[in-house]
Write a structure and sequence with these properties.
The two termini are 38 Å apart. By secondary structure, this protein is of the alpha/beta class. Strands 6, 7, 8, 9, 10, 11, 12 and 13 form an eight-stranded mixed beta sheet that branches. A three-stranded antiparallel beta sheet has the order 1-4-5, with helices on both faces. Strands 2-3 form a two-stranded antiparallel ribbon. Bound molecules: magnesium ion. The site of magnesium ion has 5 residues, from loops. Magnesium ion binds next to loops.
């Protein structure tokens, strides 16, 4: 069996009725995805997804990965991954970053092919499910009036979510006010997490962690810049609030640099960014050896969500998984059988491979010729009080 072609599909969809989502990384009005189709001479096609600027990722797929991988056996997933990364890719696209993101999409498609050929769902190929239902928490509370945030949190708690995550990293006093209000509304035992999206400097992160510790917060996510290993290590040593990170890290090597310095409590690889199903499994195994949980980051389309669910069902150290609660047509409309939570948990599809079928009408509707958004990111709290600004898309 041979890979005959690798094609890509760029997608964009509006946020829906709510119109926009704001975090410390910027204001977003659209969702984007790059789907990757791996075609074979056996007539089996696999689909994957990668998360980033579609134009940039597409160029890497078309000009680096496709020429390298056409002709290889799609079932030799490790051989393909190692060829694309160690033997050639790193010289073309570097050891971390967009090349790994593009490879993530190819890797997910290869697992889809393997499952279709072997007539088994991906979770079975990963060793079998260790849990039938994947518990999810809701990423849901963005900067908004405290009263509105509390009302929304109460609705989410009633829907059965196994936790709620609140976006912070804007203004420290406001962050603490909103987290305090939600905590007092939901009681001391409901799992509440916070996500600063790299919005704090170390001093602000230490102050936030001290406040969140008293509020029994489940974790403080991405308090500092994604590459700041030393800063996260100092923060972790100073607080009992678990430090979570990883949605912007690529490959086992990035995660190892944090684990080796005791700079992280909860690892959050994204299957559509960190290197695909293969590499997230490797990252999770390394974390398991240190007794650390993995909480998969997912913010993408239905294909990425399906891949995440297969992993979360099969990894024994998978903790509660992220569910992005906001409207996302690339999740709700892209698949013929959409994946949605039921009373706070989700099941991975049971069909062969990823077990998903793309809706052709949705593919036409969301087809997009551009790349992605260019939200302006502000790295520290020096400019607290200003909102991130959306500066358009490429
Ligand atoms: Mg996050």
């Amino acid at each position: 069996m041979k890979i005959t072609d690798i094609r890509t599909v760029r997608l964009r969809a509006p946020m829906g009725a709510q119109g926009r989502v704001e975090s410390r990384t910027g204001v977003r009005t659209h969702r984007y995805a790059l789907l990757v189709e791996v075609h074979t001479d056996a007539g089996v096609t696999g689909v994957g997804s990668c998360s980033g600027n579609g134009l940039v990722l597409e160029a890497i797929v078309a000009h680096v990965l496709k020429p390298l991988l056409v002709g290889m056996d799609p079932l030799a997933i490790k051989e393909v991954w190692d060829t694309a990364y160690f033997r050639a890719g790193v010289r073309a696209f570097g050891s971390r970053g967009v090349g790994v993101v593009a490879l993530s999409g190819v890797d997910i498609a290869l697992w889809d092919i393997a499952g279709k050929v072997k007539r088994a769902p991906v979770h079975e190929l990963l060793g079998g499910k260790v849990r039938d239902r994947v518990e999810v928490y809701a990423t849901a509370l963005y900067p908004e009036a405290t009263k509105a945030a509390v009302e929304k949190a109460e609705v989410l708690a009633r829907q059965g979510f196994h936790g709620i995550k609140i976006k912070v990293g804007f203004d420290l006093a406001q962050d603490i006010e909103i987290v305090t209000a939600v905590r007092s509304a939901l009681g001391p035992d409901f799992p509440l997490m916070t996500d600063a999206n790299m919005g704090y400097g170390l001093d602000a992160a230490l102050a936030a962690a001290a406040a969140f510790e008293k509020l029994g917060i489940g974790w403080l996510e991405e308090p500092l810049f994604m590459e700041d290993v030393a800063g996260h290590a100092r923060l972790k040593a100073a607080t009992a609030v678990p430090v979570a990170l990883g949605e912007n890290l690529h490959t086992r090597f990035a995660f190892e640099s944090f684990m080796a310095r005791d700079a992280v409590d909860v690892l959050q690889p994204d299957v559509a960014r960190a290197g695909g199903i293969s590499e997230v499994r490797t990252i999770a195994a390394a974390a398991a050896g240190r007794g650390l949980p993995v909480s998969l980051h997912t913010y993408g389309d239905g294909v990425a969500l399906a891949a995440s669910l297969h992993l979360a069902a099969a990894l024994d150290n998978s903790a509660v998984m992220e569910f992005d609660y906001n409207e996302n047509p690339l999740r709700s409309d892209l698949l013929q059988e959409p994946l949605e939570p039921d009373n706070g948990s989700m099941r991975p599809p049971d069909g062969p491979g990823l077990g998903v079928t793309l809706d052709p009408e949705a593919l036409r509707r969301f087809h997009f010729d551009g790349g992605g958004d260019l939200a302006l990111w502000r790295p520290t709290l020096r400019d607290a009080g200003q909102s991130p600004v959306r500066v358009g898309e490429s």
